[in-house]
């Protein structure tokens, strides 16, 4: 018994030593003194970047919520994924994204169930498999490593056990089970006896390796199908395992397994326990739909189809990490620059824009250069709080409607306001209306009161400055005096318009409501969240412009 305990302790020590010297996921962050990009990950048509301050940025396609913006709007420029902090690893699946925080919790967003009719999804998701904002993955605790496949994912926890979740149509998630989908991760019982150190999720199969260098595969792949994990080979000094994505994206052809051994050789692993050496001096390798991308020990990148010898990408050096899906290569330079190229169009890499400037200095819109609200608008755009028009413009002097302003308020504090589209309070804002869930959230969050309106809300009605002040005042807890302190030239008009909005003449508590509104207005003015004009007026009935709205939202959210 003493000998067994001693061997057990030695085994644990070896595992810990191995973990300290081995990268745990495709994109683990490295602490930096300045906020720069430390990891990248490519999805099917979207991309993720991790910065050293623990924030995650996303850009590209967003039809399934894979950008985590709370919307389904595509973004050509990278924007921060709200609701995430202290993230240390990222990985992008086909239409979904995964992040691992420093506490070992896993966050997911997007869509990973290919068996569900996507036309039925809403902002809350279906059965936990779709979300347009990051949500914690249930039962995923004490996680060390993440790997996102096409429609499933693998996790490795602090007990060195493999967990799997997502699509299971080829038993790539739950070996031996007839269940098509696992919305929450579960430990693979077949792997309980192993101290696993590496994981990799492909399109239809999964791979793991333990501390002894034993490589296990399950699911569907080029040469067969395993309902339960099967050990195929044992390698000394194993550095990494790689599950390729099939030539057609899903299915058996091209679903192969690779590894990088202790001599930095890239090996193709066969089911009979043999292997074929593909290349030497390899740090990382990715295989997707018949294409191969290699990062070598000289920090150079090579790319080729599986039928050709790899050739180096010109003008691309000092690369520390690569990611590749759907013909798009992302390469991270050691100075934090992200380079991108499409392998089917050109081998000339282009720098991904947006990471060499502060977020409020990015030009998200074609008509904002030099505008007084440029920085405020760009900051909100970087966080998906505002979006532009189809022609790339923002039109800052356009009027803001009630629905548009409420959406901005809700998105500026996503942790405070939860989107809700299961109700219909106003007859002109049905459940299918694009702003229904924002307006219902504003009602439940106290931003607006249904008694202040008739049976209709008039969501397209232009916002006035006094209505803006009333809504913003309802979001703060500050209160300063029950009468307006600041002596505006149009103070009487302010009180009259406030009274009309609150309908005080027909309400028993009208005077109390007016006093409360004045107190909050005082607080907003004292806090410089809202201001009057240089001529001493407030202009309560003037319509609010998009630029003015962005300025207020930025001050309110303190972004």
Tell me about this structure.
A hairpin with a 2-residue loop joins strand 21 (282-288) and strand 22 (291-296). The radius of gyration is 27 Å and the shape is elongated. By secondary structure, the chain is of the alpha+beta class. The protein has eight helices and 28 strands. The protein has a four-stranded antiparallel β-sheet, with no helix packed on it. Strands 5-6-7-8 form a four-stranded antiparallel β-sheet, with no helix packed on it.
Question: What is this structure's SSE topology?
Answer:
Blueprint: H1 2-20, E1 37-42, E2 46-51, E3 56-60, E4 75-80, E5 87-92, E6 96-101, E7 106-111, E8 130-136, E9 143-148, E10 152-157, E11 162-167, E12 181-187, E13 196-201, E14 205-210, E15 214-221, E16 224-234, E17 240-243, E18 257-260, E19 266-269, E20 275-279, E21 282-288, E22 291-296, E23 301-305, E24 311-312, E25 319-325, E26 328-333, E27 338-342, E28 350-351, H2 374-382, H3 402-412, H4 436-444, H5 465-473, H6 491-502, H7 510-526, H8 546-557
Antiparallel strand pairs: 1-2, 2-3, 3-4, 5-6, 6-7, 7-8, 9-10, 10-11, 11-12, 13-14, 14-15, 15-16, 17-18, 18-19, 19-20, 21-22, 22-23, 23-24, 25-26, 26-27, 27-28
Signal peptide: 1-26
Keywords: Signal
InterPro entries: Ran_GTPase-activating, RCC1/BLIP-II, Reg_chr_condens, SLH_dom
């Amino acid at each position: 018994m003493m000998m067994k305990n001693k061997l057990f302790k030695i085994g644990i020590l070896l595992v810990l030593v191995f973990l300290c010297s081995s990268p745990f996921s495709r994109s683990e962050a490295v602490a930096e003194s300045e906020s720069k990009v430390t990891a990248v990950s490519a999805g099917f048509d979207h991309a993720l970047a991790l910065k050293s301050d623990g924030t995650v940025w996303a850009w590209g396609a967003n039809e399934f919520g894979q950008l985590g913006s709370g919307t389904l709007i595509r973004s050509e420029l990278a924007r921060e994924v709200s609701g995430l902090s202290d993230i240390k690893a990222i990985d992008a699946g086909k239409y979904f994204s995964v992040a691992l925080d420093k506490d070992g919790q896993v966050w997911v967003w997007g869509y990973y169930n290919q068996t569900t009719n996507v036309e039925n999804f809403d902002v809350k998701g279906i059965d936990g498999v779709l979300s347009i904002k990051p949500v914690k993955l249930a039962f995923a605790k004490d996680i060390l490593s993440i790997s996102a496949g096409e429609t499933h994912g693998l996790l490795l926890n602090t007990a060195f056990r493999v967990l799997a979740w997502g699509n299971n149509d080829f038993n790539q998630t739950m070996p031996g089970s007839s269940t098509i989908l696992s919305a929450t991760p579960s430990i693979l019982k077949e792997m309980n006896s192993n101290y696993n150190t590496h994981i990799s999720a492909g399109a239809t199969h999964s791979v793991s390796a333990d501390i002894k260098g034993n490589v296990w595969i399950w699911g569907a792949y080029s040469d067969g199908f395993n309902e339960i994990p099967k050990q195929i080979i044992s390698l000394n000094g194993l550095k990494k395992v790689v599950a390729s994505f099939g030539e057609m994206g899903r299915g058996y052809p091209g679903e192969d397994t690779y590894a990088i051994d202790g001599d930095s050789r890239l090996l193709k692993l066969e089911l009979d326990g043999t292997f074929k050496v593909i290349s030497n001096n390899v740090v990382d390798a990715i295989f997707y739909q018949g294409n191969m991308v290699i990062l070598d020990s000289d920090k150079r990148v090579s790319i080729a189809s599986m039928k050709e010898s790899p050739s180096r990408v010109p003008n691309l050096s000092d690369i520390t990490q690569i990611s590749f899906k759907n013909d798009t290569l992302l390469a991270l330079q050691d100075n934090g620059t992200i380079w991108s190229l499409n392998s089917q169009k050109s081998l000339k890499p282009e720098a991904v824009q947006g990471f060499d400037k502060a977020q409020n200095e990015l030009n998200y819109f074609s008509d904002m250069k030099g505008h007084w609200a440029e920085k405020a608008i760009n900051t909100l755009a970087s966080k998906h709080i505002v979006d532009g028009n189809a022609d790339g413009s923002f039109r800052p002097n356009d009027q803001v409607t009630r629905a548009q302003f409420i959406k901005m308020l809700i998105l500026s504090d996503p942790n405070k306001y939860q989107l809700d589209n299961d109700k219909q309070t106003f007859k002109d804002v049905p459940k299918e209306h694009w702003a229904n869930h924002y307006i219902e959230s504003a009602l439940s969050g106290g931003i607006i009161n249904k008694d202040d309106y008739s049976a209709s809300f008039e969501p397209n009605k232009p916002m006035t400055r006094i209505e803006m002040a009333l809504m913003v005042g309802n979001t703060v807890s500050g209160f300063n005096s029950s009468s307006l302190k600041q002596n505006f030239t149009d103070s009487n008009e302010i009180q009259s318009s406030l009274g009309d909005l609150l309908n005080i003449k027909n309400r028993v508590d009208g005077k109390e409501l007016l006093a409360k509104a004045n107190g909050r207005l005082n607080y907003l003015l004292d806090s410089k969240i809202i201001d009057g004009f240089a001529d001493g007026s407030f202009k309560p009935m003037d319509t609010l412009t998009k630029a003015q709205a962005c300025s207020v939202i930025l001050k309110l959210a303190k972004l």
